[in-house]
């Protein structure tokens, strides 16, 4: 049972928002493009890396809130394959902050029963980062609550290419070169194999693009874009995104039940 007292203080904005959420219809998987750290810092005359540092507080709050809402999966986009184009110092600081986060937050992940899994070309990261990631993944592997995926050195096209190559190798090994694969088979060989697709994709900082994130998996995700910059993104913004999600009419290419009846009546 979701403990509402842990999610919002009595009389707070969060409580008012929470009252508008139908807890029986929560998205099961939320994916987030955490964007706007640089602009957040710039607007305060701070170096870009200070935006990344401040963004960690948002990560902490969103992950914990997702666990308390008993969501199935949260996937955070932290570093793309394209982000290597950034200045060396910025990349190094991002990696340092990631290691620091993992060390500091492991206890909280454990106490919230959260399972941590990195996705992306992890073997392309610095060995010291890989070590920390593997350690956190192994330590939390028996947890049964929220699945927290972090996308690192991640690209949606890279994932599709890696999947194609993995499948080709598998078929070669099994001498099944002429096999025909289907969507389920393909999905089950992505980095996110066996994880349900996101229902809701959130992007902060107002940018209207997907920046190579989960290209296959977001086929039918509802998209919520907020102007809020990532370091300012808090529980209340997550609640707003969920309220927006719940206002959508998800048809998956079909028609609403009521429209179906009308069609039958018209034919009669
Ligand atoms: C998102 O913030 C963090 C990462 C991509 C690592 P940005 O650093 O992209 O911030 P803006 O978009 O420049 O404001
Ligand atoms: C997307 O943000 C990548 C992450 C959030 C890790 P970017 O800031 O890199 O994307 P663009 O350059 O605005 O498309
Ligand atoms: Mg950006």
Keywords:
268 residues; alpha/beta; Undecaprenyl pyrophosphate synthetase; 44% helix; globular; binds 3-methylbut-3-enyl trihydrogen diphosphate; binds magnesium ion
Detail the topology: elements first, then pairings.
Layout: H1 13-19, E1 29-33, H2 37-42, H3 48-68, E2 73-80, H4 88-111, E3 115-119, H5 127-139, E4 147-154, H6 156-173, H7 183-187, E5 200-203, E6 222-225, H8 235-246, H9 257-267
Parallel strand pairs: 1-2, 1-5, 2-4, 3-4, 5-6
The structure holds 3-methylbut-3-enyl trihydrogen diphosphate (2 copies) and magnesium ion.
Tell me what the structure shows:
The chain is globular. Strand 3 (115-119), helix 5 (127-139) and strand 4 form a beta-alpha-beta unit. The chain has 268 residues and is of the alpha/beta class. The protein has nine helices and six strands; from the N terminus they run αβααβαβαβααββαα. Helix 1 packs parallel to helix 8 (235-246) and helix 4 runs parallel beside helix 5. The model has no long low-confidence stretch (mean pLDDT 96). Strands 3-4-2-1-5-6 form a six-stranded parallel beta sheet, with helices on both faces. Helices cover 44% and strands 13% of the residues. The longest helix has 24 residues, at 88-111. The chain starts with 12 loop residues before the first helix and ends with a helix. The protein has a domain at 26-154 and 197-248: Decaprenyl diphosphate synthase-like (Undecaprenyl pyrophosphate synthetase, 3-Layer(aba) Sandwich). The structure holds 3-methylbut-3-enyl trihydrogen diphosphate (2 copies) and magnesium ion. One 3-methylbut-3-enyl trihydrogen diphosphate (IPE) binds at residues 34-39, 79, 83, 94, 205, 230.
